[in-house]
Amino acid sequence: MPEPKPPTEAVADPPTAFWSGTITFGMVTIPVSLVSAVRSSVGVSLRQLAPDGTPLRREYVCPQHQRPLEPDEIARAYELSDGEFVVLTDDELEALAPEASHDIELRQFVDRDQLSPMLFERPYFLLPGSGSTKPYRLLTQVLEATGRAGIATFVMREHQRVVAILANDQLLRAQTLRFVSRLRTPQSVGLPSPPAQVDAAQIERMRDLIRAHEEADIDLSELDDEVRVRTIALAQRKLAEGRDVVEQPSDEPDQDAEIIDLMEVLRRSLERPMASEA
Amino acid sequence: MPRSIFNARLVINGLGISVKLVTAVEPRQVSFRLLHASDRVPVRQRMVHPVTGEEVAHESAQKGIALPHGMVVLRDEELVELEPTASRDLEVLRFVATTQLDHPWYVRPYYLSPHDPDDAQAYFALARALAAESKQGIVRWTMRKKPYRGALRAVGDHLALITLRSAAEVVATDALPELSWPAPSIQELAMARQLVEMLEGELDLEQFHDRYAEQVIALAEAKAEGKTTPLPTAKPEPAPPPSLADALAASITRLQEQDVA
């Protein structure tokens, strides 16, 4: 009988740092790079394949010329209210906020508990850059010990973001926050106001109901995406039986090559102290 | 007026409260379009066969899932089979402390609105009770043929439901190895702590506006009127960094001077 295969997870894309810059904290500077803290894995979104099983490629075409475009033929434009397009170049956008694009300046610290989850947009890990391990560790330790978060704004991918810098498990994290102006209020969405008196006995019954169903810990299996789990299980079964398995063409970049899990990236960046410590 | 996106029933152990989900987030102010640079026509995206270059329409494309040892095709009837059962129930599985889920879990907030006037009392009582107990409910439901997980929380007098990432998406970092880097000294830690305390305040997010979006709009309008655009300014070379302890001490001194002034 063949050895049972270890459980195979779906292929995860290697996380890529798409922003690198500096955190400044007083006159202390910490070079960092930003990677998404969300593990992306196939199974959440399926690949599209041609009838012969070849994975499809995304392509941009000009409807006027009816031909595919090379990346350098594509411009980014802002649409004015009258429908006119204005092309904006990378240099022009960068010039709008040169510092904000490379620097997260921590000028204010708040109690982490003040941050409402309604504000949370996307989480990132901040990985230490070359020579920054000591100040990185310093800021991490202080934020963890005090339960504080630094608040700052910076520009990433053509959008300004408000960000909370916080620390957990020896890692600095950046949690982008929504602008308050983008968060609707109960009034602005037209929720009814509470009655002048909410029945005290009913509140008490609800509190009893909550206590009867409360647990000290989250059961993480309740936070599984069961459709994803069953989809991957079905695919694995079909793979083992050799049903509907297609070859991946070798010219597809990185599909079978190195599969790096986010956890592995974190482990590596924490295990290997950077050179040139100040 | 934002439209409600989903009529549902919040279910806690047999107790049902009819509610509407209303999205709590406004769309972004600035969005960009991609154009063909030479004729300024918005580009179209399409999926093509990588070898023949021929377009494959969405309907005729097969769906596949990439596993480490191969690509497996999933047929339409199999995908339909995998869809969760349609339901209007927001099922509360349990309640946990509001501090139980860390920031990476939360995705997108919705308000719940009491749908039926008869349920309004129960709705507002539940919001009060959640606030008094400092608890959030863990909720599961199906919407647009997709399974969702969410946190039911009191926001002021009302109820909000914030969608949660799946367990597979959130990285557990508590298993990371102990750091072997140079540790900051006790003195450096004390100074850093003092600096954080000096910069500490109440959270005031109203002060942050999307100034950059305003600048992008202004730039686009100026260009449309044929005005010249600003040239990128050269970045000043950063000064060589002082030692960590010196930088901390200088920062504290500077803040103290600002306080006196």
TrEMBL record, chain B:
<dbReference type="GO" id="GO:0003690">
    <property type="term" value="F:double-stranded DNA binding"/>
</dbReference>
<feature type="region of interest" description="Disordered">
    <location>
        <begin position="224"/>
        <end position="244"/>
    </location>
</feature>
<keyword id="KW-0238">DNA-binding</keyword>
<protein>
    <submittedName>
        <fullName>Ku domain protein</fullName>
    </submittedName>
</protein>
<dbReference type="InterPro" id="IPR016194">
    <property type="entry name" value="SPOC-like_C_dom_sf"/>
</dbReference>
<dbReference type="InterPro" id="IPR006164">
    <property type="entry name" value="DNA_bd_Ku70/Ku80"/>
</dbReference>
<feature type="domain" description="Ku">
    <location>
        <begin position="53"/>
        <end position="181"/>
    </location>
</feature>
<dbReference type="GO" id="GO:0006303">
    <property type="term" value="P:double-strand break repair via nonhomologous end joining"/>
</dbReference>
<feature type="compositionally biased region" description="Pro residues">
    <location>
        <begin position="233"/>
        <end position="243"/>
    </location>
</feature>
<dbReference type="InterPro" id="IPR009187">
    <property type="entry name" value="Prok_Ku"/>
</dbReference>
<dbReference type="Pfam" id="PF02735">
    <property type="entry name" value="Ku"/>
</dbReference>
